[in-house]
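Researcher: For the annotation table, I need C-alpha cells for Protein lin-52 homolog. Please keep the output clean. Sequence:
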Amino acid sequence: MASPNGGDDFEGSLISFEKLDRASPDLWPEQLPGVAEFAASCKNPINNSPPKWMAELESEDIEMLKELGSLTTANLMEKVKGLQNLAYQLGLEESREMTRGKFLNILERPKK
C-alpha cells in the first residue's frame, strides 16, 4: 500500500516494537478503584445476572432506589435535608436517654 508521495516509508518509521507490560500495577495503577471490574461487567451484555451489590437488595430497597432516582434535584435535596433533620432529632433523643440512664444509674458496671 505504497502512496505515490512515499508515505509508506513515513508510516514504517512510526511503528514501535516496544513491548509494554500492562500487568504491572506500578506502571498502570487503577485510577478509580472498582472501575476495571465495572468495565469488565459492561463488556459482556449477554450476562443477565444482577450485579453483586444488587444481590443483597430486597424489593423494598429497589423500589426506594427507583423512587429516589425519579426525584428532581430540588426534591432530592429536600429529601436529604429531611434525613439530616431526622438524624439530628434522633441524636438529641439518644442524648436525653443516655442522660436519663446515667441519672438512674443503669449504665454503671456491677461492683465486684
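Researcher: And a one-line annotation?
Model: The radius of gyration is 30 Å.
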